[in-house]
Amino acid sequence: MAKPLIQMALDSLDFDQTVGLATLVAPHVDIFEIGTPCIKHNGINLVKELRARFPEKLILVDLKTMDAGEYEATPFYAAGADICTVLGVSGLATCAGVIKAANAYGAEAQIDLINVEDKVACARATAEMGAHIMGVHTGLDAQAAGHTPFADLNDITRLGLNVRVSVAGGIKPSTVQDVVRAGANIIVVGAAIYGAASPADAAREIRELVDAV
Ligand SMILES: O=C([C@H](O)CO)[C@H](O)[C@H](O)COP(=O)(O)O
User: Which residues form the Orotidine 5'-phosphate decarboxylase domain (predicted)?
Assistant: First the structure.
């Protein structure tokens, strides 16, 4: 199996801080995620800026689209996004719209399973429609209430769907190897990197731990 990719979640609201953090961690990560609060605050110009500065990196725009899937996602793919997210709770028509927009640009659509009641059914249905990535995700508010993504990750990887599986939700050095072993193809890390005294060192540590599995 290919080595898992490491995705850095850029969750600052500040445009320059976001570019600065991306620059610091770039040698150690594969994907820059422009987090939902960040993309809402800064808009599409941040996608263009990161695309221009980091042509070799993958860029995920965490739109968490809830309606008007094709219409909302298309300009972000046109601006250089490799992956956009759409909420599984939005329903199949909206997911289909983002998948259609992704395919038009040779890019990928990620279904975010956050707060989906029946994650297995949603994953099966959206994979069948051509979704490229399934996102197992315990959001920041759910994390604060003590939840983790580990059980859901096992439920989704054991389905053996023809998609890559991404996992997000408080992943840190002590848990990153467990999610690799559970079959995650994309490992999202936010606070454990941007909250560290040295984000570059923290990103390097995550990379070394992933590569050591
Ligand atoms: O997607 C996220 C959240 O919903 C805000 O947009 C985070 O980027 C994601 O949870 C990863 O961050 P950490 O949980 O801090 O690792």
Answer: 5-206
